Amino acid sequence: MGQLSWWRGGVIYQVYPRSLMDANDDGIGDLQGIIAKLDYIASLNVDAIWISPFFKSPMKDFGYDISDYLAIDPIFGTMDDFDELIAKAHGLGLKIIIDQVLSHTSDEHAWFEQSRQDRSNEKADWYVWADPKEDGTAPNNWLAIFGGCAWEWEPRRQQYYLHNFLKSQPDLNFHNPAVRDAVLENVEFWLKKGVDGFRLDAITFCYHDQELRDNPAKPKDKRQGRGFSEDNPYAYQYHYYNNTRPQTLGFIEQLRALIDAYPGTVTLGEVSSEDSLATMADYTRGDKRLHMAYSFELLTKDYSAAYIRETVEALEASIGDGWPCWAIGNHDVERVASRWSQGEAKLGQVKMLNALLGSLRGSICTYQGEELGLTEANIEFEQLQDPFGLAFWPMFKGRDGCRTPMPWTDATAGVQHAGFSQVTPWLPVAAAHVPLAVDKQEADAESALHSYRQFMQWRKQQIALVDGSITFLDIKAPLLAFVREHQQQSLLVIINLTAETHDVSLDELVQDNPQLANINNYSVQSEHGLSMAKLDGASRTLTFAAFAVFYADKRLG
């Protein structure tokens, strides 16, 4: 187990820096705030921290619109702060993964400022420019994720430029080798600073179809899913030509060659495509592409044993020697404690969901606050910051509800804004989050926080969970059952996804799954701070209370 690469089966804790901790009392979280909370993060028994963008930016998309890849935005601190963060994290045994937004820049980036001036300057071909149609309209029918046409007119060049997101986020032209070289040079800057890896934002959007072919229409019954619904016209197309182009694989291999020159560093790709599971398999196949990738399949509202099984099995059928990374929450989606709850989120379900995530094959990403069971915050329209939410209100309220500040201290202790800041924060602390504050949960042995710590510590000792295969079992819904197996260990996992009680006959389970014929050789595990299923040895029946889980272990080596 000690010979495994650190990231394989690792637990990655996502930090959204604006909202973790405000150390200088300007209402916005910062690098010194992260440094102040590194001991807390290390106590969670995670392996790495993924930090969302902290680069210089006009913040129109809150850091995902970068104007200088090599500079820290002053609202987050200085390069000295980042060096201190790296040093302290490494001293605590934590790896640091940072976001890289390679497909597009801010329109305030020096490259774009030059490129937009005319058609003959040194960087004229560094972005995706196209002439209008004869009638002056956009070059094709491509749409932007944040709404409307993906093309914006630039009068100085009398051309349109492509933006797959906001119009202030122009797309780089990766068909130009000079662009690829410049991007890789920026990446290497951070490798030399000592980072341990990169989460690659929107990696499927690097290349576009040079023929600028129209995307085909998507039938009405296919428009739901992957976070898009009919209130957003983006759902009306198959996005074959504005992303996930075949040339992306060549660039990924260039990137991997650079990464491999810095042993121990890792790449994690964010995948969004018409068949994200197939793309994950393509992007991670072999040892010359990404180390791992994750997609949005478990970041949707779909929540059932059948859906989870179908999703994981579909990936397992195609990924071969590739390696997945699973997430059930991040800074772009409604918090899982609300998204997958049956009404009001329950403590038992929060604990179970963290265990479910940690039991799937692959590495996992935990979004800050999931260890506390934070729910989606209710943000009023006048408080909204997210341009996505402002564009689609009220059908879609944006992403601010999952980005509110972390609650560190219960308000009854006499501190302001739950200990996040001494001034009014950029987004309000949710009133419902204050009773879930870290100090309150630290004092409660039965809290979600203690359960998370216990489970992640226990998980580290289970080679089958860290690096084993996964095989699903036939069992009646709403239970989910699978075996994680390694040459040294076999682990039977059964999880009740609902608040109802269910009984399972072990004899019937074996009858439906003959591979469990030797189930008597398994030893029941029960020390993870979770609601555990109870086994009646006489009747060979398991009783699952609300959100209960069952682990049975068999050491093989």
Plain-language structure description:
Strand 15 (479-486) and strand 16 (489-496) form a beta hairpin. 26% of the residues lie in helices and 17% in strands. The longest helix is centred in the first third of the chain and has 17 residues, at 177-193. By secondary structure, the protein is an alpha/beta fold. The chain is globular, with a radius of gyration of 24 Å.
CATH fold label of the largest domain: TIM Barrel
The helix content, as a percent range, equals 25-40%
Please summarize the sheet with the most strands: 8 strands, parallel
Shape verdict: globular
Mean pLDDT: 94
Question: Topology, pairings included?
Answer:
Layout: E1 11-15, H1 17-20, H2 31-36, H3 38-43, E2 48-51, E3 55-56, E4 68-72, H4 79-91, E5 95-101, H5 110-115, E6 129-130, E7 151-154, E8 159-162, H6 177-193, E9 197-201, H7 247-260, E10 266-270, H8 276-284, E11 292-294, H9 305-319, E12 325-327, H10 336-339, H11 347-359, E13 363-367, H12 387-392, H13 438-442, H14 448-460, H15 463-467, E14 469-472, E15 479-486, E16 489-496, E17 502-505, H16 506-512, E18 523-525, E19 534-536, E20 541-544, E21 549-555
Parallel strand pairs: 1-2, 1-13, 2-5, 5-9, 9-10, 10-11, 12-13
Antiparallel strand pairs: 3-4, 6-8, 7-8, 14-15, 15-16, 16-21, 17-20, 18-21, 19-20
Helix pairs in contact: 6-7, 8-9, 11-14
